[in-house]
Write a structure and sequence with these properties.
With 905 residues, this protein is an alpha/beta fold. It is built from 21 helices and 38 strands. GO terms for molecular function: 1,4-alpha-glucan branching enzyme activity; cation binding; hydrolase activity, hydrolyzing O-glycosyl compounds.
Length: 905
């Protein structure tokens, strides 16, 4: 019994062919061949299909028409939904969103002409790059449409450009520019090749499964003896016996031998009825056990009736899979017979012959790369450790928290020693510290392979490779696994907004042409950073980038991504333009619609394949709809970064006297436009303040506390107080996420400066001074930061709704707001202290101080006595609320009160 589908896909050199043995019964060996194709399908007319049943059935009804596709409204899709949500009425932007949605639908349709689904679109790493094949070989696949010749060169073949190659027009190169090269494993001396061309080896799991000594002939004989019933396999042994018998029954022993002698044959139904009439008086045992019932009508599908006994026998027959599996061998057998054609640790590159001449490149999908250094070229490294030595995961992903406290880190500077630190250094030093400090996630920058160390990792050269400066791929897996064991999520700062322009190690001019991965001309080059800009409208570029996101989740179990510098990709001017906030700036001719479509696809794919993944958007222009659902016209991010907050604090600290600080400006900057505030990620300072040529807040406020610098006690108290207050208000007034850069929580006094020519490649500033935690000042700042994290962990500050900011006074320089049962009061005045300052509250009761920046254990003055720790409300309206508190407010201090007892009034 078989079915013929109504459409047959056309195969290509890149198609996967899977043979699924469905059943073997009686004299039939049924096999279904499924061709997995990545090209448009060609449809053929539908054929008649035979169905089996044990009882007679009425003629089937004609197929019902497929229901019409659901409209966008029925699916809950509104391309301009978020505009209605926020009350934005801008016709040009609404029309832009509708056109963008239509372009998205067209793009998805175009993708599905080459891929079965978006999931397949985002799993290119399963085919491209270097992969072990079960048929004792290694397969290499690379996309280089501009090349004429492709070969693999490396230490495994003496860097020969002809030993392992594929040429244009030959097997291994298709119309889309994908090159396919096979590296056969080498037979050991004295071993014979496998007799079966499809002989498979389970290289990973069945290490102890070796060759049992049975030959293929013995396995097949065992299958015939144990599986087939007596006489059941005779038609397999004599393949022409069935045809000869049918011919003799139809035409007799002396039937026609040529086409000229063959008379016109009646149709099959007539011949079948004639045969039935001739044999109607035969014994029942001579009649077939099946019959065709059509009731004299023509149907696309005929019914076949069989007696229950033979039908049940047919159904109980199982395919001989066990004998097929017996032909498979484990890695032990592979080791006995073969040597790897590409050993683990081999160094290689891909060689192209292009219209502009020959060139060598590091493969775009390489997973481990040694960048060029000391005049040596960059090399890809084949990372395939033996299964018994490969890293095995121990911990599951932590549960997705409702609020994020992110500890941002750079692996290379995590050690106190003047060196490039390793993943092992990070595991031993930073992970326990981040856990102790109370953070629930770490965010890693500079992990993806890049050419120059001083670029911090933003000029990425190899998007699928962990930077070899810090360790091996397995070392990074151990880092992620250990972080998960401590309950820490691991985020990766991903740079898909641009790429390094270096030709020898990156993707620029990868196949000799200027438009392989990037735009040509001015659009393909960043105006100020000297980097290349991706061609997001190209399907193969989308394939590369979407697969890259999925790769880090699947291979390294990362929990989310921080998308770096979206403004540089969203606009053709790379975000270097003055923005006034007018909606026209988000839909004019400078907006890159292709980049927007990529971000929408990235979020849809990531959240569909990995529902718990977290995506964070870093966009200085705050493009409308960043964190709104894609079904409502948004881009689909989970959080967006408020970049203006840290810039405001830095400007206040460096350029504005303390008494001129505007409380209204501080509040308005921290909460933004109140749209999607719950999706906002805030930070007082991240790596930019200390890495990009600036100074950390601690260096501005306190100086280098490791030395006896001539700083007055008053200046010292001011620095410590503002350091704590800035962090407290930034972390608690905004959304559900807060971030801090490694070391700033304890007031790291020095900026970060990577070794480069202008500092004689010094590592003196490319580290973290963890020994400062032994100093009183730094330890006190760290204690406060840790208690601030505990406040959120125990009081669940960040996961609550928006802060109710009810008191902002520029004259007294006091800010107060409520978040749940917690009351936050800040006095930024440099001199004035208030003994009984009135603050409104909604609930009557007793409020107790849970965190006070002025406590002595945090380096404060301890001006609030124990008799003021608990405050009782007064029945008097204030700040638009029914009750109020009269609280003591020392200058430059902040207090957090919690409602501990409700009083009935």
């Amino acid at each position: 019994m078989f079915s013929l589908t109504d459409s047959i896909p056309i195969s290509s050199p890149l198609s996967d062919i899977r043979l699924n043995f469905l059943s073997q019964s009686g004299s039939r060996n049924l096999r279904q061949v499924t061709l997995v194709c990545r090209r448009p399908r060609v449809s053929f007319p539908q054929r008649n299909i035979c169905r089996c049943s044990t009882t007679e059935q009425p003629p089937p009804q004609r197929r019902k028409q497929r229901p019409a596709k659901q409209s966008d409204e029925e699916k809950g899709i509104d391309p301009v939904g978020f505009l209605t949500k926020y009350g934005i009425t801008h016709k040009a932007f609404a029309q832009f969103l509708r056109e963008r949605y239509k372009s998205l639908k067209d793009l998805k349709d175009e993708i599905l002409t080459r891929h079965f689904s978006l999931k397949e679109m985002s799993t290119g790493y399963e085919l491209l790059g270097m992969h072990r094949n079960v048929q004792h070989r290694v397969d290499f696949l690379e996309w280089a449409p501009g090349a004429r010749y492709c070969a693999l060169v490396g230490d495994f073949n003496g860097w020969s450009t002809t030993d392992n190659c594929a040429r244009e027009g030959h097997f291994g190169h298709d119309d889309c520019g994908y090159w396919f090269i096979i590296l056969e494993d080498k037979l050991r001396q004295g071993e014979e090749p496998d007799k079966l061309y499809f002989q498979q080896y389970n290289y990973v799991d069945d290490y102890d499964k070796g060759d049992n000594g049975s030959t293929i002939e013995e396995i097949f004989k065992k299958a015939n003896d144990e599986y087939w019933e007596p006489g059941e396999d005779r038609f397999i042994k004599s393949r022409y016996e069935v045809a000869a018998k049918l011919y003799e029954e139809m035409f007799g022993p002396n039937g026609p031998q040529t086409e000229e002698e063959l008379e016109e044959m009646p149709d099959a139904v007539t011949r079948y009825k004639s045969w039935k009439e001739q044999h109607k008086n035969d014994p029942a045992s001579n009649l077939p056990s099946y019959d065709v019932i059509d009731n004299g009508k023509e149907y696309d599908i005929f019914n076949i009736i069989g007696d229950p006994e033979s039908f049940q026998k047919f159904r109980m027959k199982q395919p001989p899979i066990a004998y097929w599996l017996e032909t498979k061998k484990g890695r032990k057998a592979w080791l006995q017979k073969y040597m790897p054609g590409l050993p683990h640790g081999s160094k290689y590159r891909v060689y192209f012959n292009t219209p502009n001449g020959p060139l060598e490149r590091v493969p775009a999908w390489a997973t481990y790369v040694i960048p060029d250094a000391d005049g040596k070229q960059a090399l890809a490294v084949h990372w395939e450790p033996p299964p018994e030595h490969a890293y095995k995961w121990k911990h599951k992903h932590p549960l997705k928290p409702k609020s994020l406290r992110i500890y941002e880190c750079h692996v290379g500077i995590c050690s106190q020693e003047p060196k490039v630190s390793s993943f092992s250094d990070f595991i031993s030093k930073v992970l326990p510290h981040a856990k102790e400090a109370g953070y629930n996630a770490i965010q890693l920058i500079g992990v993806v392979e890049h050419k120059d160390y001083f670029t911090v990792g933003y000029r990425v050269t190899n998007f699928y490779a962990v930077s070899s400066r810090f360790g091996t791929p397995d070392d990074f897996k151990r880092l992620v696994d250990e972080a998960h064991g401590l309950g820490l999520l691991v985020f990766l700062e991903i740079v898909h907004s641009y790429a390094a322009a270096d030709e020898m190690v990156g993707l620029s001019l990868f196949d000799g042409t200027n438009d392989c991965y990037f735009h040509t001309g001015k659009r393909g080059n960043h105006k100020f950073w000297g980097t290349r800009m991706f061609k997001y409208g190209d399907l193969d570029v989308l394939h590369f980038l979407l697969s890259n996101l999925n790769w880090w989740v699947e291979e390294y179990h990362v929990d989310g991504f921080h998308f770096h510098s979206l403004s540089s990709m969203l606009y053709t001017h790379n975000g270097f333009a003055s923005f006034t906030g007018d909606m026209d700036e988000y839909c004019n001719q400078y907006v890159d619609k292709e980049a927007l479509l990529y971000l929408i696809l990235a979020n849809e794919v990531l959240h569909a394949l990995h529902p718990n993944v977290i995506t964070i958007a870093e966009d200085a222009t705050l493009y409308p709809g960043l964190c709104d659902p894609t079904s409502q016209g948004g881009l689909g991010f989970d959080y967006f970064v408020n970049l203006s907050a840290s810039e405001m604090w830095l400007a206040l600290l460096e350029n504005t006297p303390d008494h001129e600080w505007s409380m209204s400006k501080i509040v308005s900057t921290l909460v933004g436009g109140r749209q999607n505030v719950d999706k906002m990620l805030l930070y007082a300072e991240n790596h930019n303040q200390s890495i990009s040529g600036g100074r950390s807040f601690a260096e501005i406020l306190i100086g280098n506390s490791s030395k006896k610098s001539p700083i007055s006690q008053e200046s010292f108290l001011r620095g410590c107080s503002l350091h704590k207050m800035i962090r407290l208000i930034t972390s608690t007034i905004g959304g559900h996420a807060y971030l801090n850069f490694m070391g700033n929580e304890f007031g790291h006094p020095k900026r970060v400066e990577f070794p480069m020519p202008n500092n004689n490649f010094s590592f003196s500033l490319a580290n973290r001074q963890w020994d400062l935690l032994e100093n009183d000042v730094n330890n006190q700042l760290f204690s406060f930061d840790k208690d601030m994290m505990d406040l959120d962990e125990n009081g669940r500050i960040l996961l609550r709704g928006l802060a109710n900011i009810h008191h902002v006074n520029d004259t007294t320089m006091v800010i107060s707001y409520l978040r749940g049962p917690n009351l936050f009061v800040f006095n930024f005045h440099p001199v004035n202290a208030y003994e009984r300052y009135t603050i409104g509250v909604e609930e009557a009761g007793e409020y107790q101080v849970t965190l006070n920046t002025d406590e002595k254990k945090y380096g404060g003055r301890g001006l609030i006595g124990h008799d003021h720790i608990v405050q009782r409300t007064i029945s008097r309206r204030a700040d638009g609320m029914r009750f109020c508190l009269e609280v003591p407010l020392p200058s430059r201090s902040a207090q957090v009160y919690k409602l501990t007892r409700i009083l009935r009034v």
